[in-house]
Write a structure and sequence with these properties.
By secondary structure, the protein is of the alpha/beta class. The protein contains 8 helices and 7 strands.
Length: 170
């Protein structure tokens, strides 16, 4: 994980559920990451998957990622190249799934009213800060605990666990 992520903001509202992030009908078969990426945010903004660029930042309102526990919702965002998701609040399972797959997620009160789609943002994941480079505004996020930063730094829970097990063997 990069300490700082800079990209264009894609703003979404409150209660964006996992069906809007990744359609349920696609769960009937396994799709490789590049195919999943083509469907990211399909239910909320059909342009997203075609136009998102590496390190772009998803900005959500309250309860982003609510709904089912499908990891595919998070995986599709990561596969699409999203650098971070910053929201007013998250569905619990979405938040933990994001950390588990190595996608930085930060809770940031007031982000919805201070960012517009298309703004250029810089997100300091470890430092807990979002800079709106378009407006000059700066917001603080709720800091992630050190163990979550370590998981993100390793690229997700599986690589983190593999490293931890290798350390114990040494």
């Amino acid at each position: 994980m990069a300490d700082k992520v800079e990209g264009k903001a894609w703003k979404f509202g409150d209660n964006v559920n996992t069906d809007l992030i990744y359609p349920g009908h696609l769960l009937k078969s396994f799709l490789p990451a590049p195919e999943m990426a083509k469907h990211a945010m399909e239910g909320a903004d059909p342009r997203f998957a075609r136009e998102v660029k590496p390190n772009d930042i998803v900005v959500g309102g309250r309860n982003f990622g609510c709904g089912s526990s499908r990891e595919e919702a998070v995986a599709s965002l990561k596969a699409a190249g999203v650098g971070a998701v910053v929201a007013e609040s998250f569905g619990r399972i979405f938040f933990r799934n994001a950390v588990n797959v190595g996608l930085p997620v930060l809770e940031c009160k007031g982000i919805s009213s201070r960012v517009n789609s298309g703004d250029l943002l810089e997100v300091d994941v470890a430092g807990g800060e979002v800079r709106n480079l378009t407006t000059g505004g700066v917001l603080r996020t709720i800091p992630l605990p050190p163990f979550m930063l370590q998981i993100l730094d390793k690229g997700g829970l599986i690589p983190y666990t593999k490293d931890r097990l290798a350390e114990k063997k040494a």
